[in-house]
Structures are given as C-alpha cells and as structure tokens.
Amino acid sequence: MNGHPGGEAHTRYLIELSFLPPGSRWLDMGAGDGSALAILEDAGFVPVGIDLTPRSGRVTAGDFLHTPYESGSFDGVLSQCSFYVSADVPGALNEAARLLRKGGKLVFSDVTEDVVALLSQVRAAGFAVRHLEDLTEQWREYYLEALWREDVSCLAMSKKVSYVLFVCERM
C-alpha cells in the first residue's frame, strides 16, 4: 500500500504537470519515506524533503508549516496527502508560497471537505490555479483498501470529502 492514492504513477503525474525543467530545486512537504524524493532525483531534479516523522534518512525532521529554508529558495513544492492532516491548510499554503520563487509551482493532491474553500485559500496564499482535477473516485478506492489494511495514511476525519489535485503558480 502506498502512502497516497495512485502511488508512484500519481507522483510522476504531479511532477510532469509542473512543467519545470530538470535541475529545478524541489521541496516535498510531508515527505514521509522519501519515495517522491527518489522520483524527483531520477527525473533530474534537486529534491529536499521535510516531515514531522520522517521514515527515511533522506527526509529532514521538521514542521513544514515552519520550515528552516530561505524564502524563494525552491522552484517547485510537492505535497501529497499532507496539508489536510496538518490541520492548518492555509498555513501550509502560505509556507509553500513563501518558499517558492515567483513563477514557482506548487503541485499537490489532498482530501478536502470543501473544494471551493480550498480554492479560495490557494488564491489567498498568492497562487494562480493552472490545473485542477477531482480524483475523488480514485481516493475512495484507496480509502477502502486503507481501511481494510488498517493503514491510517491520508484518511480524512470527515465522511464527506473530495480528493483533488492542484497545480498552482506562485504570483
């Protein structure tokens, strides 16, 4: 079982949607076991990962709501099933905006109880939405498998949620 719906193929899809060139510097917010870092590195990017409870030596221990990185130090930020569980989605979006250079890309997929409110939070953080997909059906399949296996990764606290993919540009 992967730590998020769609596994490696979904991670690759998010990265491709950024249209960032090889050599770009990326931060994975909520990097967990560092699997996305390996994918980024294999694609020619320079990856960094942060997580409260890293499950790999490649991932830095720390709070992605308050990172130690300088403003504007990344070209891309990736997050999968992390903003929602942080319990501070606006804070996570604001930190991502701070970390990205102007024109940098935030690509994330996550559960949300209110897509319209999330869209407003994304815009309030200083992003323009370049792509948005509803992947709720894919998430439901993942959710049922996670319940069966008793894996609590990327599970929502509410019964009525959507699973969405965003590609955003830092304005």
Overall pLDDT, averaged? Answer: 90
Rounded radius of gyration (Å):
15 Å
Distance between the termini: 36 Å
N-to-C SSE string, H for helix and E for strand: HEHEEEHEHEHE
Number of extended strands: 7
Strand content: 25-35%
Number of helices: 5
How is the biggest beta sheet arranged?
Answer: 7 strands, mixed
Taken from the alpha-carbon principal axes, the silhouette is globular
Q: Order of strands across the widest beta sheet?
A: 3-2-1-4-5-7-6
> Structural class of the helix and strand makeup?
alpha/beta
The portion of residues assigned to helices is 25-40%
Stretches where pLDDT falls below 50 for ≥5 residues? none
Could you explain how this protein is built, in words?
- The mean pLDDT is 90.
- Strands 3-2-1-4-5-7-6 form a 7-stranded mixed sheet, with helices on both faces.
- The chain is α/β, with parallel strands linked by helices and 171 residues long.
- The relative contact order is 0.18.
- The protein contains 5 helices and 7 strands; from the N terminus they run αβαβββαβαβαβ.
